[in-house]
Amino acid sequence: MYIGLSSLRIRTHFVIPTLNHKPKSSIFSLLNSSFSSMSYQKELVAAKKAASLAAKLCQKVQKSLLQSDVQSKLDKSPVTVADYGSQAVVSFVLEHELSAEPFSLVAEEDSGDLREDGAQDTLERIRVLVNDTIASESTYSVSPLSADGVLAAIDSGRSEGGAVGRHWVLDPIDGTKGFVRGDQYAIALALLDQGRVVLGVLACPNLPLAPLGVQSSAGQTGCLFSAVLGEGTYMESLDGSSPVKVNVSPTENSEEASFFESYEAAHSSFDLSSSIAKKLGVKAPPVRIDSQAKYGALSRGDGAIYLRFPKAGYREKIWDHAAGSIVVTEAGGIVSDAAGNPLDFSKGKYLDLYKGIIACNQKLMPALLKAIQQSIEEKAASL
């Protein structure tokens, strides 16, 4: 399903100011009350269902990927199958669960390569995966999707997003290289309403239910994080345990803090992060894991700080941070760029940022921002 901007409902839009410009209290209060008075429970149920089913498909592909030792051959085709299949499943679920709600989908993939000559076998694999996954959910009594139906489901994610109407934002597999290695990845789904993230779901199939670094006798993995604006963040198992409310680390002492950063060096400057950590007095080594699973782990207090400083010229996409950002903020944290400005998801597919993205609790943020600025200035001087 694809619904263009012309069919979206138009509402009054307020631009959310940066932290460096304090908004007038009347406008700020009106904005918050407008969103907080809305209910997104139907959308939350649909999002959790979509992400869980997509995770089931991804788990099946990853299991086959590892058993066939494709990882050692660096063959990316099964990952592509999972990306496309996950996106098609999410699109299908949103269409069926929210058929009366006008919205569009901003997603990472499109079907262009699948329409090329020679892609028929890959498309058929995706079609079978998608239909098997949908059939595993007993509430859907529908005919299997055709190849054209799968292509249409994938292409429902062609929206550009923006500040008007509702837009779902999807990364069908966040953390591709982690997926290939059999490590962390996430299905990340968020809802924008008038350009603001109001709901987020992270399905993290390989993230332990127990905090990272804590041995669990059961050893159960597979977490589902969900957050709605003004309602907190909750974690449950992917197999359906009761949700529990989670909160970011309350530590005030930066020396006791630990921090997350990307596993891939291209996604974060390890040297800059090391300099920042040294200025803060952080003693623990960095925890490097793939995907928005970091946001989930941060939201439940596994670490206290998240640092992401990609290489110059890299543009952050909204699907890489929309779901994770609300999961952290609703758990009591702050997510901003490296100057402390809040992330603005209202400008389309890309984020405009100063240097990078950071997250921590409110008490650590002033010291973190100071350490970042000092480290950036020192790095610039050395160059």
Automatic annotation (TrEMBL):
Gene3D superfamilies: 3.40.190.80, Fructose-1,6-Bisphosphatase, subunit A, domain 1 (3.30.540.10)
Reaction catalysis annotation: 1D-myo-inositol 1,4-bisphosphate + H2O = 1D-myo-inositol 4-phosphate + phosphate; adenosine 3',5'-bisphosphate + H2O = AMP + phosphate; adenosine 2',5'-bisphosphate + H2O = AMP + phosphate; 3'-phosphoadenylyl sulfate + H2O = adenosine 5'-phosphosulfate + phosphate
Matches recorded under InterPro entries: DPNP (IPR006239), Inositol_monoP_metal-BS (IPR020583), Inositol_monoP_superfamily (IPR051090), Inositol_monophosphatase-like (IPR000760), Inositol_monophosphatase_CS (IPR020550)
Pfam families: Inositol_P
GO MF entries: 3'(2'),5'-bisphosphate nucleotidase activity; inositol-1,4-bisphosphate 1-phosphatase activity; metal ion binding
Function: Converts adenosine 3'-phosphate 5'-phosphosulfate (PAPS) to adenosine 5'-phosphosulfate (APS) and 3'(2')-phosphoadenosine 5'-phosphate (PAP) to AMP.
Protein family membership: Belongs to the inositol monophosphatase superfamily.
Protein name: 3'(2'),5'-bisphosphate nucleotidase
Organism per entry: Chenopodium quinoa
